[in-house]
Design brief:
heterodimer, A: 267 residues, alpha+beta, Immunoglobulin-like, 5 helices, B: 197 residues, mainly alpha, Rna Polymerase Sigma Factor, Chain: A, Arc Repressor Mutant, subunit A, 9 helices, globular
Amino acid sequence: MSSTQHTSREDLTLYSMQALTPAEYAEVKAHLETCAACRGALAEELADVALIGLSAPQQALPDGARQRFLATIANTPQASGPVAGTAPAALPMPAGKQKGGLGWFGWVTAVAALAVACYLGYHSFDLQQQLDANRRQIVQLSAQASRAQELVDALTSPEAKQVTLTETKRPAQPIGHATYLKKTGALIFVASNLRPVPPSKTYELWLIPANGKAPMPAGLFRPDATGSASVVLPPLPAGIEAKAFGVTVEEAQGSPTPTLPIVMTGQ
Amino acid sequence: MPESPSNPNAPAPRSFDRDAGSSIVEDLGLLQEIQSGSQNAMAVFFDRYSRMVYSVALRVLNDPSEAEDVMQEIFVQIWQNPGAFVAGRGSLGGWLVVVTRNRAVDKLRRRKPSDPVELFALPSSTNLAQEMEQAFLLEKIRAAMTKLPEEQRKSVELAFFEGLSHSEIAGKTGEPLGTIKTRIRLALIAIRKELSV
């Protein structure tokens, strides 16, 4: 490893598990600070490492763990925003009449006040529920809008690279069109007239980096009955300069490296 | 790579890709409510992920009390600063598993918490919120682990659950360092492949 060379996948795996020696660890850490591609690769490694964690047998929480946690946060202020655990202060009792009876008027007033309080409390709870639901909906819509905007940006940006891919040996037939925006790593690939692939196989799209590094898998796809298929916004790291795009036929689960021949290519 | 959601004839998606987007949106919604001080949202979030977090911590520490401490520490951190993850996005479930494992290993090895991987957002294709509700997927992961060649599975478990470095594993097993590295990497590839079938 050196800070000018990319970190190997093996070392990124070990880094993600903190299983490197301290010297190796420091070297990888320094490289990651300056290499977006390796940070992207590390994120993928972490995702795979997380799978190992899920192989742990699922255990029930100890008795009272949930209550202990809720009690803890009730008394733990957040870094910013409202301070948790500050219940509204109780209204002070009037100075007099603390020991005396309420009397007829007092009881009627108290019952009426209780009824109003119950109504308002219920109404308030109902409104809070609606508010919570609305908040969730806003967040969902925002996320959807954000994705849609990313899609539109990638399709319409003058910086987007427009590439038409054709079958290597028979250029007139299957056609693929890739739209790629380097700064966000957004890729949209649309293909038509594709030949069917057996159930055990799939097409795999590849981004071939301009820096000469290994092709990056950019999504699996199978043609529909009309021979059309698409890959929309596969999780590619941002900032990778694409030299070309290619398509190979792989086993159904896909492959980390392309298997020759490249059946479609374009740059 | 994940399948394109827009391809109607795409092969069955990998289990981890299923509804990942909607789970992330739900998680983000919860985190934003937590950020605004909602203890109810924090309780929902805790219910969604606590069992997973506790199970990983217990597997590493083998001590229910210490595992609960790690779990509490992680969820209190999220309560105190939910914005840290809102900004990062990505797979919250995967992030929680990795952070839990690292905290538990730090505790196991009595070392200071040092967790730079916490800064990384995991790809959204590995969101775990939905999957955690699907016991079959967990079974699939465990089955994938048991299908690994013994030496690969052992190397991965020593690294992940016992927090041993590759040189410590090499010393323990008498194998060369390079072999250990390759075994761990091959094990991860095999598990991912198994899940994508």
